[in-house]
Amino acid sequence: MVTTELVVLDMAGTTVADDGLVERAFTAAIAAAGVSEEDERYGGMFDYVRETMGQSKITVFRALLGDEDLAQRANAEFEGSYGRLVAAGECKPIPGAEETIRGLREKGVRVALTTGFAPTTQRALLDALGWHDLADLALAPGDGVRGRPYPDLILAVALKLKVADVRNIAVVGDTPTDVRTGLAAGAGIVAGVLTGASNRADLEAAGATHVLDSVSALPAVLEGATQS
């Protein structure tokens, strides 16, 4: 029998509807680094951003631009652009996400929200949704905690919330990067959801233990794991 102590949930695409906000912010960011939509490099860069959804954004810009100053400039513009979209009301929760989180916590399961965004952007999302007290903890890359695909965020949450065994962690995200990160952290359940950037085949290929229509289906999975 497996008892889930902690559920680590991604935000954009998993608990928060993306609706193209990341791609819009990327276009503004890459323009700040000197690459317009008409630039022959733009298409390949855009494809790479889609392939690396879920990863820390500064890591993505470093890989794309190969120059730290340009990467930092693009990352700052990305965070600013995304934050403005959020502040304008262009974000909303995935249907059932809030109820799922509240239900898990009522059953004694700790819940953390993690993201590939910078802490300021995560706070903007939490502000816009009124979610600051929804989960036990919200964490973003920074202060020595590397973003995805490294397992740091999950392991840092486990340490902060005093999880006894990483196998008692469930990780949920909408990208292969989320899945690979959960597996690298040793989580017992690593579920992909179909509400974001990836399809079932990609999530299964990354090694997801479950592929769910949405995060709302997670409680049933956890209940099944407890009874098995």
Automatic annotation (TrEMBL):
<dbReference type="GO" id="GO:0005829">
    <property type="term" value="C:cytosol"/>
</dbReference>
<dbReference type="InterPro" id="IPR023214">
    <property type="entry name" value="HAD_sf"/>
</dbReference>
<dbReference type="Pfam" id="PF00702">
    <property type="entry name" value="Hydrolase"/>
</dbReference>
<dbReference type="InterPro" id="IPR022468">
    <property type="entry name" value="PhnX-like"/>
</dbReference>
<protein>
    <submittedName>
        <fullName>Phosphonatase-like hydrolase</fullName>
    </submittedName>
</protein>
<dbReference type="InterPro" id="IPR036412">
    <property type="entry name" value="HAD-like_sf"/>
</dbReference>
<dbReference type="GO" id="GO:0008967">
    <property type="term" value="F:phosphoglycolate phosphatase activity"/>
</dbReference>
<dbReference type="InterPro" id="IPR050155">
    <property type="entry name" value="HAD-like_hydrolase_sf"/>
</dbReference>
<dbReference type="GO" id="GO:0006281">
    <property type="term" value="P:DNA repair"/>
</dbReference>
<keyword id="KW-0378">Hydrolase</keyword>
